[in-house]
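Q: Joint fold for the lines below.
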Amino acid sequence: MATLAASRLLGLLRATAGSLGAGKGRLSISIAAIALGVALGYAVQLVNRVAVNEFAQAVQTLSGTADLVIRGPRGGFSEQVLGEVAQLPEVAAASPIVEVEARIPGRDEALRLLGIDVFRAGLVQPGLVPEVAAVPQPSAPDSPSREMPSLDTLRDDTVFLNAAAMAALGMGVGDFLPVQVGTGIVRLRVAGEVRAEGHAQPLAVMDIAGAQWRLGRLGRLGRIDLRVHPGVDVAELARRIGAVLPPGVAVERPSAAIESTVRLSRSYRVNLNVLALVALFTGGLLVFSTQALAVVRRRPYLALLRVLGLTRGAMMLLLLLEAAAVGAVGALVGLAGGYALAELVLGTVGPDLGSGFFRGVVARATFEPAPALLFLVLGIATALLGSLAAANEAARTEPAQALKAGDEQRAFRRLTPVWPGLAFIALGAALAGAPPVNGLPVFGYAAIACLLVGTILLLARIARAVFDRIPVARRPAARLAVLQLRGAPGQATVSLAAIVASVSLLVSMAIMVASFRQSLDQWLQHVLPADLYLRAAPTGDSAFLPPDVQEAIAALPGVRRVEFLRSERLLLDARRPQIVLLARPIDAASAASRLPLVRSAPPPAGAAPPAWVSEVAADLYGFDVGQEIELPIGGRSVPFHVAGVWRDYARQQGAVVIERALYAELTGDRNANDAAIHLEPGAAPESVARALRERVPGSGELETVLPAEIRQRSLAIFDRTFAVTYALETAALAIGLMGLSSSFGALVLARRREFGVLRHLGLTRAQVGAMLAAEGGIVSALGLGVGAALGWIISLILIHVVNRQSFHWSMDLHVPWGSLAAFTAIMLGLASLTALASGRQAMGGDAVRAVKEDW
Amino acid sequence: MTSRRNCCRRAVSSLAAVALAATSPAIAETEYPVVLPGVEVVFPRDHGAHPAYRTEWWYITGWVRDRAGRDLGIQVTFFRNRPGVAEDNPSAFAPRQLLFAHAALADAAHGRLRHDQRAARAGFGFARAAEDATDVHIGDWSLRATTQGYAARIAAGEFTLDLAFRVTQPVLLQGAGGYSRKGPLPGQSSFYYSRPHLAVSGMVVVDGVRLEIAGEAWLDHEWSSEYLAPEAQGWDWTGVNLADGGALMAFRIRDRHGGTFWAGGTLRRSDGTVRRFAPGEIAFTPLRTWRSPRTEAEYPVAMRVRAGTLELELAPMMDDQELDSRASVGTVYWEGAVRALEGEREIGRGYLELTGYWRPLRL
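A: Joint structure:
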């Protein structure tokens, strides 16, 4: 019965909306805005899910049935650890693995190459045990090569590839795989395939002894996977094993690697999700403006319904249902769009969304019901919230009053109380200073939301104050515009809200991205002072510059000075990714010229050797200037004095710089990864690079780059990483304009009677048009002004709170005045044009008829 | 003819090995010591491992009985293998020496073998075969010499063995003073001795039940570099502890057509006198075959064995004593507890080993 009545009423509402003509357009814009937000959010979710799933599966394949994994620095830890843990009675099987990110000459991606002990891996990670290619033997056609661990799995010059590696490298059984080790090439015969199911990325497996010897890892292991006997208390065993492990080596459950990587990418993902929520929020604003005006427009009809017996509750329910339908349609369209977007991103950018966290993961999107439901609910909730005020207003209005003409102003007046706005702004200001929650800038985001909501709530007050101060011009059009705005500021606030929201978000993101880019550029100039840079290899950890090559480089003609850098990764916390250790020539006196220090203090006499930590490392591990820290280097814990904190945009897991001579002394490792070459005055980098290729042995695999190229490449990576942000900025702009056009169009339509009267009073069409353009211009200018000011404040929060807490790096404020000014001018022009166009449309009808409506 | 060709091939290959070694040490072919007559087997040194040789095993088989009078067959085997790869690799993981182990428990009531296996490269204290005495282990599986004889501890998937083997008789050298020929070429041979009539005591844990057991076992220790001729398919072997205190070992190596390629055997009578059999004096005649439902291999699980004038029938404790060791040494074979019958009368108990029935055996 009730539903029947409701459906009939819905039909009536639809008819009334349709009668106004423009209803469909506004409706579709609201739907589009919600769809955009949902699509972005769902796509981010899908893509991330794929990345995490793929990564987790790969980790699972590598760990097999292991209960615990022992990991250490990237360069590996002493193999003696195996002897200790394999003997423990609780350990059923211990599988040692040498992990090498092998540099394959001519390829951009390093190949993950594992050295395994087939006998032990068979007990823990059977997926890693290679399948030996059947060698045809005339005497034994069915030779037992499949089951027997063939000699090829034990040789030190054979390698087994998974299908992905065979496809990526274009190699098959019998081919030779070249691996750059140091500056030389080791050729390994492809002897068969390794299935490694679940490991979708390219993978190579060889014998552990061969890997240790041929790939320069003698005496070292990358990890040990342990399977314990049933019934053993794994946590307790882990504690006992952890206690005897050397510094910098830790035992964890295999899932820890997944968790630490997922955590590393989380801030990036959360930021994207927040951007999606911003799009949703803007969609909500659009619904608000559309619904508010729709309610006003349909005021007589709604009142009629009330008179005909519809209760307040039913009226409210009806309007909310209408909004929910808009939200549902938008969300469904958004889910489909999100899925398509995810597929597109996976196919082009890759599942790491350009962030580089899940390198090498290849995958396709799959429909995820749980997040789909979440975003469906979010989309509907957004629409409901957007229409709540309007629905409430419509339900509360006395029908008799609403039936009278010219009552529209009342509706808007009610929506603009003053104190909640101030309260929100105060709350926002307070929240901005709060620390992160679980590594996420939750309060930073909340502060931005509060400021935004507070400002929007105050818009009517601001609008009135501004309009009252605008001098009334002599020309009738401008005069009328100002007077109209003064007389009915409430109407303008709905348009204002849309402009302020989109402009502030756009301006804040523009300022933040510009600040970041500018800071990155300056940082690059600071960290790249040399004339020429040389890398052992662009990827992987198998290539390095041995001492003789270093000497040969230093002796090249035209070379004044070379600084060699050795990089290693240390495990400071098993639940976090390894931190980067950079060993380079540096001392307390020269640190400021070599590192972009944000704070430092000269170490006191007798202090431990100095170390300079990156901002990320300082935040993640609580390091600060003047502190004594311990770093696990060369299998023991070495004390260092933190002499400074430096800005590092390159390594999100954190980095520490120490003096290279000390590192060599501690580890005996005199190899280097990179060289920064300072030239004699007048020497050309190109000729030095040529001399290098001619004179240095093994230099064919080395890569020389000019600082300008690195800068260019880094900025290109930056732009790619922020591609999503740029896309969202454009979307915000589009939404802002759509909102403006929508609300202005509605406003103008609602004032058709007024225009009729003005025409009757003798104003020309052009004059009415000019009045509307002036109104549009004034409202837009106000919106742009408030939006820009708010955007500037939000950008400060983004820079100093959100980014600082999410990614732990600081940046200098840089306002892109030029592009902001251009943007403002364009917005202003477009707003005036929109107002004008809306007016044209509204005045298309007969002025007399328009006045007639005013019965 | 065969001999000369083989000889020449070996000469050529060693020349090639030298030439290759000069350019690439990794491709160097391994030279294994050749088993030749005239080398004296010396104890206790030769109870230990001989890592230079390609293949070696310590092989214990026996019949035991629990307190309830139930007969069980036990097998504990440790293999050592020098695969000849990574010989010059300085890595501590270099797979120069591989160790494998098989353990099996035969129980007629269970109807099939319970068995398990281990495989490892020697090193890191995890797996090792000592050179000075019988002392070989892979993880928690071990076989070690004791003052009394031997001790074996095996923690397998379906059962646990904790056994002591007491020596009751002197070592029985097989072949000519321990030089046991396996083919027509002098190098196709092994060093081989046996320890029959080991008195077994200890524990067998199966299905969660601890069984105190006692019985009699047989140990073989054999090392070689060229055990099987290329023409050989596999072998039939038996070792029987005769009830009167005597011991019989007999084997034949089969060719690709199932015929006898080589054979040999030794009988030590209860009085200690030893009779060695020439290839022609040994005959294995299948009496009944059993087809494995798992591998489709068909094994002659009941045999008539003739060694000189001695003739006896081997009857299995149960038919299904197939052992799948594909995950370690890469083959499937039949290793079963058998009764030795003379007519209707049981004159001894031992084990029968049937290899090469699944696929040609390669060592």
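Q: Anything notable?
A: The CA atoms of residues 157 and 221 of chain B lie 26 Å apart. The helical segments of chain B are 2-23.
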